[in-house]
Structures are given as structure tokens and as C-alpha cells.
Amino acid sequence: MNANLYDEGPSPAVLKPQALSQPPPPRRARAKAGSAKGLIAALILLSAIPLAGGAFRLTELAGGAAITPANARFFGAPLPVVVHILSASVFAVLGAFQFAPRFRRRRPGWHRGAGRLLVACGLLVGLSGLWMTLFYSLPASDGQLLYALRLVFGSAMIVSIVLSFAAIRRGDVKRHRAWMIRGYAIGLGAGTQALTLAAGAMISGPPSELSRALLMGAGWVINLAVAEWAIRRQPAPPARRTAARAAAGVGPGQ
Fold this sequence. Notes:
Elements: H1 2-8, H2 12-19, H3 26-63, H4 72-76, H5 78-96, H6 101-106, H7 108-135, H8 144-169, H9 173-187, H10 189-204, H11 209-232, H12 238-247
Helix pairs in contact: 3-5, 3-10, 5-7, 7-8, 8-9, 8-11, 9-11, 10-11
């Protein structure tokens, strides 16, 4: 039986377990690297509008711009908005580079150091956002629904980052990645909200209090939906691949 098998060439069933431990072909590796670069560029581009808005707000506060009903709350208590803008900028830009798997593998020390900074910045983004929601006066364009949505998603961001940190402390890489992706998706909500608000204005004109809340809520929901899709298409962690090889009768070094 074995002689016939070798005469006829290895069957796909024999090759498949071995392929689990083989590095991807160069063309496939290049395609993955190009895909990661495109994703990083897209995430930074998505952050561009809120980053520009944050830079304008900081310039306004530093330059002593005229106080208006729209910005009076920021001049009354500038520290929370400054912390929010600076931490959100680092979180958005630095977080995008965590989606480059080859870079993470080549520089694990950088990944760990950047990860600690991202956890700190993400918590500052969520906490400062909750503070501003709770203690700043409510803008005329906002209402109770948007107020509630900000509390829900701000809290969800903080919980996601805490769960991500707890998971990596236990050595659970899969859960760490999943929760960090969710936290990053919520943190990047302002970029998607700029698009949903622009689309709503093009379709039906200036938003009402209700439509504004729904369009901004849609930005968070869209990001989380994309995050869940990305989490579910991630490859199996090494432990699961090792189990698959053992079930197929292939040793770790084969």
C-alpha cells in the first residue's frame, strides 16, 4: 500500500497537514504585505478629518480665539478636550501600524511598547470623552439620544481596552487582538461619522437633532461591524494549528 502511494505521488491528504507549517509563497507574502500597507493608509486617511478638526481646536485654544456659544465650554475647561485630542491622535495613527503583521513579528519589542502606549491613550480617549459628555454643557445641535450613545460607546471603548489588556496578561493573544480591534474601531468612530454626516447632508440636507444622533450612531455601528468581520476572518492561533497537525499525525517540526 505504501509502495503504491509513493509510486503514484503524495496525495492531497498527505500534503495538506505539512502545508500548515510551511511559510507562505513569496507572491502570497507580497500580497499580504501590500494589503497591510493599504489598510494602514486607509485607517490613517479615515482619521484625517477628525485629526484636522482636533488640530484646529488646539490652535483655537492656544491662540485665544473669540469665545462663541459653540466653543465656550472648551475655553471654560480646556484640559479634557486637549487630553482627548492628543490621546486620540496617537491612538488613531499608532494603532493603524499595529495592523502590519510582518512588522509586528520582526519587531516584537516595538509592538509591545506601542501596545502599552495604545492602552494608555485609548483609556484617556474614552475617559476624557465620558468626562466631556457628562460635564460639558450639551450643544444645541445634540440631544438626549446622542448623549446616551456617547455614554454607551465611550464606556464600551474603555471596557474593550481593559479586557484586551487583561487577555494579554493571561497570554490569550486571540482575545487580546479581538478586544483591541473593537476598542480601536470605536475610537476611530469620529472618522466614519464625518462620512455618515456628509452622506446624510447630501441626501436630505442639514440633519435634525434625531437624524444627527442616528448618523453618528451609524458611524460607530459600521466600524464595529467591520471589526467583527475582521476578527472572524483572522487565522487560527498557533495552538489551534498545532492541534490540527497533531490530529493529522504530523509533528511540530514536520
